[in-house]
Amino acid sequence: MKVWNSILEAGQEIAELKKQTVATIGNFDGVHLGHQAVLKRAIANARRFDCLAVALTFSNHPESILGEGPFLLNMPSIRRELLAKQGLDALLEIEFTRSFAALEPEIFFHTWLREALNIKALVVGHDFRFGSAGRGDYRLLEELTVDQGIVLERVAPVRVDGEVISSSVIRRLLAEGDIETANRMLGYSFIIEGEVIKGEQLGRKLGYPTANIRLKPGYLFPRYGVYLVRLSLEDRFYFGVANVGVKPTFGKTIPLVEAYLFDIELDLYHRLVRVEFLRFIRPENRFAGPEALRAQIAKDIEVARSYL
Question: Contact, 160 vs 173, CB < 8 A?
């Protein structure tokens, strides 16, 4: 998948290739099953028309400019990988700015989509809006595309247990610790990525050495508690348990992820790892002391192993 970081770069390469595109637009935070349905339709249309399948997205969340941005589900590297797995030919990833937000929908359509991306077709989600103050809606798109002979398709919402999948719903589920439903909506296991940092060796002193992973600011922590996880390092995978939270037993306040791996001890310091969350075991608690915590960790491991 080609990644473009400006509309000029995208427009120039599309012109050089002498191709049209089938485009879709969105923030795609989570690249969940609803997003995947839209992407699949865009890709199917691109193959039908012998065009490039292109997604236009943003390096920052629009609400970080328009309001209070939410905690993000995906780090950029993970989101790009998830988008590439769908089969896109190219990703146009730009910064969402106030000047971009102020574009009138007609100007955005003609300058970005029709001229720069040279669209043959446009595929959008059921709730898509665009342009200044969100004035652009599906009815306006119908007017704009029919005048230009452009194919327009709107994809119906995808539901799990009767609820429409959305990034905000998935955030809520993760905050509640409902990792199983969140993963069903995502279509994969929720992932965090971070560098393993040197801690205070508290887990090692308890007999359970852990890898301490600190997330960059702005990314979502699931509900504080203990989870069955799968840690990946390069092409290898290891199961274990992870505590998400602030270690209240020891009076800490900075949240991090501590992962204990089953049956193996690895030197992971300063390595970039990914942690997939598979099952929620229990909420984070404050214990009377290290011995009580040690006993609980043994129980957590037993429960986690039973799921495997």
Answer: no
Q: What is the pTM of this model?
A: 0.92
In b/e form, how buried is each residue of 228-237, taking b as 16+ CB within 10 angstroms?
Answer: bbbbebeeee
In sequence order, what DSSP letters do the residues of 148-173 get, joined into one string?
A: HT-EEEEEPP-EETTEEP-HHHHHHH
Same domain, 101 and 150: yes
pLDDT in tens, 133-163: 889 999 999 999 998 899 999 999 999 999 9
Query: CATH no. for residue 109?
Result: 3.40.50.620
Contact between 85 and 55 (Cβ < 8 Å): no
| pLDDT tens, residue by residue, 73-108 | 998 899 999 999 999 999 999 999 999 999 999 999
Beta bridge partners of 21: 52, 119
Does residue 206 share a domain with residue 85? no
Length of the chain measured in residues = 308
∠ at Cα 95 (151, 15), nearest 5°?
Answer: 45
Count of the separate structural domains present in the chain: 2
CB 58 within 8 A of CB 27: yes
Residue 131: domain span = 2-160
